[in-house]
Specification:
Helix content is about 35%, strand content about 20%. By secondary structure, the chain is an alpha/beta fold. The strands form four sheets. It has a six-stranded parallel beta sheet with strand order 3-2-4-5-1-6. It starts with a helix and ends in an 8-residue tail after the last helix.
């Protein structure tokens, strides 16, 4: 098994909390398989709480037991590649049962297939509306998956919702489940980052537009604020040589310069990440060190160190001492696509943009290097966190 993926998705020594969750889920799944209704098991937790580890333990348990008709689906192309790699390395695992949700739904409906258990990672990326361009003509992918399986095990993090076509909140989730039996399994322990609870709270407060404070220095998690993206990139390259899996990421909004749509700031200029059909996922490819990552290549993956460039759609309000969100500067228009079934407010669009930053800022297990495109925001963060590394 690929050692990088094994470290992220399989843990030799599960925590007591994870063991308890798995035990309770096994009991619920067993009861649901004996019942006559379509049931839903919801694994709920924030980024880095070990949701995928719990899911993969269940996948390894049920999807290698041929008494059950099972499938694993994920709507994230890079995670789909990772799960295919993992599936090849798991004894008795049928890799063909790892699918994108649209492909599974269309195939099952056409060929009248039914399942005992369908596992869904990153279920907040399921379509909650029709997407004909993506060959999905249903109205809600969770509804369709529930109709195909006795039990659907879904992983949700509502703080990772960032597009209208994949919009989910608790009200919509429970409306979709309707009168079907369900059980929520909460995960509230941070496993990805070695950061303290106070340091994770600082990241959450930043993206929630709370008053800015100094980053707490109470763990081995390494935080550095940079005055230039060029200096940040040099440090990320150094960390990548030292420990590997260190990348630069950014949020949207960088202007086109001379026809280039790169991330450009001071001496820094690199292209955005590119989707590639090769099996090796973006985060693991060494060539990705010369690109800038986004949620489309990094959501759900661990890095060792992340270099975060907060893009032009984030500014600074000196009167309230908070970071602000400027939707009109956010250039990735997928976020703003309209829906016939609901209207989104400006506040909800801002929340989508904040969620993107929150997802990316928590990718690093051991450290976060941070800078901001907006001069005022960067200056205030540097004032509060004066551990500055200048370029020579």
């Amino acid at each position: 098994m690929n050692p990088v993926l094994k470290e992220q998705f399989f843990v030799d020594d599960l925590s007591d909390n994870q063991k308890t969750i798995i035990q309770k889920m096994n009991t619920y799944i067993a009861q649901s398989l004996q019942g006559n209704e379509h049931s839903v098991a919801i694994i709920q937790g924030a980024a880095g709480t070990g949701k995928s580890v719990v899911l993969m333990e269940l996948v390894r348990q049920y999807m290698t037991d041929h008494r059950y008709k099972t499938a694993l689906v994920v709507n994230h192309p890079e995670l789909y590649k990772a799960y295919q790699d993992l599936g090849v390395a798991i004894p008795n695992m049928n890799v063909k049962s790892i699918r994108r949700p649209t492909a599974l739904i269309n195939d099952a409906q056409k060929n009248h297939k039914k399942y005992d258990i369908i596992f869904v990672d990153e279920a907040h990326l399921l379509y909650s509306k029709s997407e004909p361009y993506a060959h999905y003509r249903g109205e809600n992918q969770l509804t369709d998956l529930m109709s195909l399986a006795k039990v659907v095990v879904v992983v949700y993090d509502f703080a990772q919702v960032f597009q209208s076509k994949m919009y989910w909140d608790k009200d919509l989730l429970f409306k979709t489940i309707g009168k079907h039996p369900y059980k929520i399994f909460d995960m509230n322990f941070q496993y990805r980052m070695v950061a303290s609870d106070e340091q994770v709270a600082w990241m959450d407060n930043l993206t929630a537009q709370s008053p800015l404070t100094t980053f707490p220095d109470n763990s081995s998690f390494e935080f550095k604020m940079f005055d230039t993206a060029g200096a940040l990139y040099e440090q990320i390259k150094a960390k990548n040589r030292e420990v590997g899996m260190s990348r630069v990421v950014a949020t949207s909004g960088f202007p086109r310069i001379d026809g280039r749509h790169n991330v450009e700031m001071d001496t820094f200029s690199l292209p955005w990440d590119e989707w590639d059909p090769q099996r090796t996922h973006w985060a693991k490819r060494e060539g990705s060190l010369t690109q800038v990552g986004t949620i489309y290549t990094l959501q759900g993956f661990d890095l060792n160190y992340v270099g975060m460039i907060i893009g032009p759609s984030f500014g600074y309000d000196a009167e309230n001492d908070v970071m602000t969100i400027i939707p009109e500067k956010y250039s990735h228009k997928e976020i703003f696509k309209k829906r016939k079934d609901r209207q989104f407010t400006q506040a909800e669009y801002k929340e989508f943009i904040a969620n993107v930053l929150n997802v990316l800022i928590k990718r690093g297990k051991y450290g976060l290097y941070l800078t901001a495109y907006d001069d005022a925001l960067r200056a205030r963060l540097l004032e509060l966190n004066p551990t500055v590394n200048q370029e020579n």
